[in-house]
Specification:
The chain contains five helices and seven strands; from the N terminus they run αβαβββαβαβαβ. The protein is of the alpha/beta class. It has a domain at 45-72 and 90-180: Oxidized Rhodanese, domain 1, CATH 3.40.250.
Length: 191
């Protein structure tokens, strides 16, 4: 009986001790090429890293453009004829521009052109416009995309590493969005 009580007391004490803070990995020199949903660095060379409170301040002041880079789920191959395919809805920070698939470590020429054109359009070609790049928490795709946008010469790039997960956790609004069309999609019928 005494062992059960001692064990219970030790369990209670252990549950009140905070878990050690997870250490952020170092910032790599290159883009992340795999395992995109793992802990991310605490820094972005050349850009700034935003907390949820800082991102909210920018959003409320409408002083920057929010860019989501979460990948879009592909339409499954080999669907039976007549099957209706509906994309999974993406809930975004209101007013965001969704440029899916632009956060991978290596981009095809067409996808990189899509990113460049999307950034140019939303910034009006102003390389000093504040661009806030995000995805989800612990997602390297937003880090990759922010690093890539910096390499294009944009000077005010902010990375919001908590993304829609941190935004939702803070009780801030989300809205369903659609990706920005790609040049080839603009003339095609909806999926």
């Amino acid at each position: 009986m005494i062992w059960k009580i001692t064990g219970l007391i030790l369990t209670m004490i252990a549950s009140t001790i905070p878990a050690p803070a997870q250490q952020s990995p170092p910032e790599p020199d290159q883009y992340r090429m795999e395992n995109y949903r793992t802990p991310v660095p605490a820094t972005l060379t050349g850009g700034r890293v935003l907390t949820t409170a800082e991102a909210e301040t920018i959003w409320r002041a409408k002083s920057g453009v929010f860019i989501d880079v979460l990948p879009r789920a592909p339409k499954p191959q080999n669907l039976p004829a007549g099957t209706i395919w509906r994309d999974k809805p993406r809930l975004n920070i209101p007013g965001s521009v969704w440029l899916p698939d632009t956060g991978y470590g290596k981009l095809s020429t067409a996808t990189e052109d899509y990113l460049k054109q999307g950034i140019k359009r939303v910034s009006g070609g102003n390389d000093a416009m504040l661009l806030v790049v995000y995805c989800q928490a612990d997602c390297w795709m937003s880090w990759n995309a922010a690093k890539r946008i910096l390499s294009y010469g944009y000077r005010d790039v902010a990375w919001y590493p908590e993304g829609t997960d941190g935004w939702e956790f803070a009780g801030l609004p989300l809205e369903e969005s659609q990706p920005e069309p790609r040049a080839a999609e603009e003339t095609l019928a909806p999926r």
